[in-house]
Amino acid sequence: MVSEYEIKKQICDIGKRIYDRNMVAANDGNISVKLNDNEFLCTPTGVSKGFMTPEYICKVDREGNVIQANGDFRPSSEIKMHMRVYQCRPDVGSVVHAHPTFATAFAIAGIPLTAPIMPEAVISLGCVPIAKYGTPSTMEIPDAVEEWLPYYDAVLLENHGALAYSVDLLSAYHKMESLEFYAELLYKARQLGGPKELSQEQVQKLYEIRRKFGLPGKHPADMCMNAKEGKPSCHSCGGNCGGSSANTDAVIAEITKRVMEQLKLK
Ligand code: 13P
Questions:
Q1: Parallel, antiparallel, or unpaired: how do β-strands 130-131 and 154-157 relate?
Q2: Is 29 in the pocket of ligand 1 (CB under 6 A)?
Q3: Catalytic residue among 4, 78, 140, 254
Q4: CA distances from 61 to 36, 40, 84, 143, 191 (A)
Q5: At CB < 8 A and 24+ separation, what contacts does 222-230 make?
Q6: Is the pLDDT of residue 24 over 50?
Q7: What is the pLDDT of residues 118-141, one digit of tens each?
Q8: What is the Å distance from ligand 1's center to 206 Cα?
Q9: What is the whole-number distance in angstroms between the Cα of residue 238 and the centre of ligand 1?
């Protein structure tokens, strides 16, 4: 088993990586890791995530209350956003919040990442919706992201940044990296006259690969019952995808409606 100290070191390494890769400026961003149902490690508030040592890392309970913190270090001001992710997604073991340039530009422009433009982004992320703007450090952000948490592994935060989460720290960081790469490609393709999007058939083949490999997390490929039969879902079904149970139908119709509403912002 990996020791707590080792996990703290890993958080510092990922902090350095997001800082070195321009995903955060100054003291921006925060990272957390779940140890068990009532113990979580998180970055402290107000420090550069590029220069942390294990002593910086705080331990909190499931409400975000301090269990252990050295000196003047206090948990991230966004700890409640992290805790909401863990509450809504028991499969999640780590959460990364950053302000990567391209993803944040889309979040500021109000454009969700829903264009199927390259295989890896379709397989790993599917779509990335935008959660409504909330004042940083308040409950407005956890409340805004909550609606997307059951269905997606990455969310843009309107006029703010991006949130990614997964089974462990490296996977959560990789989601953030994939999200930023996808946003950068989409931005650049738009400069070159607009992306040539993958067809529904091509998207379905990629969804099939994802299902075959049984990748963890939430994804449009797993959202629609019809998608399992090779029919379109999130990227293109426009709310007509149906499903095998009334409950699934209602959830899918609602989510699809919201994604399509966001698309109109383009
Ligand atoms: P903290 O330093 O409190 O984690 O906040 C950084 C940030 O990016 C807030 O959105």
A1: parallel
A2: yes
A3: 78
A4: 9, 6, 12, 19, 46
A5: 223/151, 223/252, 223/255, 224/252, 225/252, 230/204
A6: yes
A7: 999 999 999 999 999 999 999 999
A8: 35
A9: 36
